[in-house]
Amino acid sequence: MLADTHKLLWEAQRGRYAVGHFNINNMEIVQGVVHAAQRMKSPVILATSEGALNYAGMKYLYALARVASENARVPVALHLDHGRDVSIIKEAIRVGYSSVMIDASHESFERNVLITRRVVGWARRKHISVEAELGTIGGVEDTVRSRNILYTDPIKAKEFVERTGCDSLAVAIGTSHGAYKFEGRAKLHQQLLEEIRQKVKIPLVLHGASGVPLALITQAEKYGAKLTGVQGVPDVEIRSAIRRGICKINTDTDIRVAFDAAVRKVISTQPQDFDPRHILGPAREIIQRVVEQRMKLFGSVGKA
Ligand code: G3H
Ligand code: 13P
Ligand code: ZN
Questions:
Q1: Which of 52, 48, 53, 46 is nearest to 19 (CA)?
Q2: Among candidates 44, 54, 52, which has minimal Cα distance to 22?
Q3: Which residue among 138, 171, 178, 261 is buried most deeply as judged by most CB within 10 Å?
Q4: CA distances in angstroms from 59 to 26, 47, 55, 99, 292, listed in the order given
Q5: How many Å lie between the centroid of ligand 2 and the Cα of residue 271?
Q6: What is the 3-state composition of the chain as percent helix, strand, coil, each rounded to the nearest 5?
Q7: What is 116-178 written as a DSSP string?
Q8: Element at 47 (helix H, strand E)
Q9: Which domains does the chain possess?
């Protein structure tokens, strides 16, 4: 059975660590992530973006997550990431995701409240928890684009949570989605996070949190990728955000870079090998290693 996101996040909040949310797009990513969770004895949240669902189909990704959770001896939850299309959110609730995100952060405050409250109403009936977003996280995803970061206002955050009844809140404190995050490394607005934490008692979520380790970039570039200038969030900022109350952390870009680095290596070094298992197997392994590192950083090791 899929794990209960709500429970995982409250346990993390009480234990002062963060549960990793990892974006999945195919079987190799699911297995890499869940093998890491098993090895680290860590709870984990698998997440599908609308882009992932358009690519693979909800039934396929749901089935992969279900099988992974049934085989694992650690809690594995399935979450809808950045839900904007109401029909996709309703479908995720219907099929039995552990949690959904409604991302109406691009709307006015009042419309964000209205839309989020509506989704909370649908999800409640099925005991599914809802993550919402206030403020705007920078960067680019398939279906979500925003150039600037609009920091979350702590007073508005309190009002937002009270009026919507959402279960967790994604905050904009200086991170950004995707690979080209910052000029120089990210500096998070930790003081602002502290102010939000004082006003909002539900679990807080950090998006755009990939660290983009130099070793991955170096490997990918060695085999032809052009990633110079890609920057991530330093570990020290992540640790400090967890101390100030972040208890769910989203990672996608690190998985993409790991996948890319591994596939390029096989294709460049074994040009005569066209067996997909030989091409994708190493990607699964490197993803596992990356996710294990993230779990150590998040403090979720041994919490399953
Ligand atoms: O923030 C979410 C992910 O990076 C999703 O990216 O929409 O391209 O799947 P995607
Ligand atoms: P990254 O692009 O930093 O991995 O962030 C992913 C994310 O926030 C998914 O919701
Ligand atoms: Zn995100």
A1: 46
A2: 44
A3: 171
A4: 12, 14, 11, 16, 27
A5: 32
A6: 50, 15, 35
A7: HHHHHHHHHHTT-EEEEEESB-BEE-SS-EESS-BPPPHHHHHHHHHHH--SEEEE-SS-BSS
A8: strand 44-48
A9: 5-298 (3.20.20.70)
pLDDT recorded at residue 185: 66
Global pTM?
A: 0.96
Tokens in use for 236?
């020290």
How far apart are alpha carbons 249 and 271 in whole angstroms? Answer: 37
Which residue type is seen at 199?
A: K
Is the C-beta atom of 82 inside 6 A of ligand 1?
Answer: yes
Pairing of strands 139-140, 129-134: unpaired
Q: Is 3 helix (H, G, I), strand (E, B) or coil?
A: coil
Of the pLDDT bands very low, low, confident and very high (cuts 50, 70, 90), residue 179 is low
CB 73 within 8 A of CB 38: yes
Q: Which two tokens stand for residue 162?
A: 């009270």
Q: Residue 290 carries which side chain, given as an amino acid letter?
A: V
The pLDDT value given to residue 143: 47
The yes-or-no answer on residue 85 being catalytic is no
Quick check: CB of 49 below 6 Å from ligand 1? Answer: yes
> How would you classify the pairing of strands 139-140 and 145-146?
antiparallel
The letter for the amino acid at 253 is T
Q: What is the pLDDT of residue 145?
A: 45
